[in-house]
Amino acid sequence: MSGQCKSLRVLVKDWFGNSGHFKVTRPDRSKAMPCRVVKVEVARSSGTYALVFFRHNDGSWCVYPPPIVHPTMNWV
Fold this sequence. Notes:
Layout: H1 8-16, E1 22-25, E2 36-44, E3 47-55, E4 61-62
């Protein structure tokens, strides 16, 4: 991914600005969803907006999911 690792707080401010109160939720980790994911919501007069942030293996947070790694099999 990117050589620059921004904190989740910095990314939220980049996307939403300094709107004040954010609601951050995190689903339970399971085998179905082993990656680190948080949903950030902000309420504004025009409605509630939400973005889902994914933490990649290099430690960076992004709004798009990490690439799917397909298992490989070695045939001897």
